[in-house]
Inverse folding.
C-alpha cells in the first residue's frame, strides 16, 4: 500500500490501515521521541500521544513526495514531545535561561580529533549539555531543522536558537578537548 493510500484509508477510519501505519512507523517515531525524553517510558508515552494526535488529524495530511508521510508524522511527534515538555515547564524554564548563559570560548577540535572520541562518550557529552542547548543542538544537528523552524517549534526567537547552538557547540568542544587531554 502506498503512503497516499495508507493515509487516505486511515483518514476514513480503516483500522487495518491504522494498524499498518502504526507497525510501519512506530519504531522510527519512538527513536525520534527517545532523543527528547528523559527515559524510555516517557519516550513511549510521547510516541503514543503522537499517534493519537496523528490519527485524529491525518485527514489534514497532504502527500507531496515519497517520504512526506513520515516527515509529517515526525513533525506531529516533535510538536507532541515539546507540548509535553512545556506542560512540565522544564523546557520553558531552560529556554529562558539560555539568554543568560555565559559565552563559552570555542576551541573546536578538528574532524580527526572529534572522530577519536567514542560514540558513547560523545552521547554522554551531549546529554550533559544544559537542556535548552541540548534540545536546540539535537533539533539542528540531528533532525536537520533550521533556526526558523526551531524558533517556531520552541516559541523562541531565531537568534536564541542560533545562540543556543553556538553555546552547545562550544560546550561540546570543551568537553571533547577535556576528554582528549586525558
Amino acid at each position: 500500500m502506498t503512503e497516499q493510500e495508507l493515509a487516505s484509508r486511515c483518514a476514513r477510519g480503516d483500522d487495518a490501515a491504522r494498524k499498518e501505519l502504526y507497525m510501519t512507523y512506530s519504531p522510527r517515531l519512538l527513536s525520534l521521541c527517545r532523543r527528547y525524553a528523559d527515559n524510555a517510558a516517557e519516550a513511549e508515552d510521547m510516541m503514543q500521544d503522537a499517534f493519537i494526535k496523528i490519527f485524529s488529524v491525518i485527514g489534514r495530511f497532504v502527500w507531496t513526495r515519497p517520504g512526506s508521510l513520515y516527515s509529517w508524522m515526525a513533525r506531529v511527534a516533535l510538536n507532541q514531545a515539546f507540548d509535553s515538555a512545556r506542560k512540565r515547564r522544564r523546557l520553558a524554564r531552560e529556554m529562558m535561561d539560555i539568554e543568560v548563559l555565559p559565552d563559552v570560548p570555542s576551541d573546536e577540535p578538528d574532524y580527526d580529533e572529534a572522530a577519536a572520541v567514542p560514540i558513547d562518550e560523545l552521547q554522554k557529552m551531549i546529554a550533559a549539555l544544559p537542556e535548552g542547548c541540548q534540545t536546540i543542538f539535537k533539533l539542528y544537528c540531528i533532525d536537520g531543522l533550521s533556526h526558523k523552524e526551531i524558533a517556531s517549534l520552541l516559541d523562541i526567537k531565531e537568534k536564541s536558537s542560533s545562540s543556543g547552538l553556538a553555546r552547545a557547540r562550544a560546550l561540546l568542544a570543551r568537553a571533547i578537548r577535556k576528554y582528549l587531554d586525558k
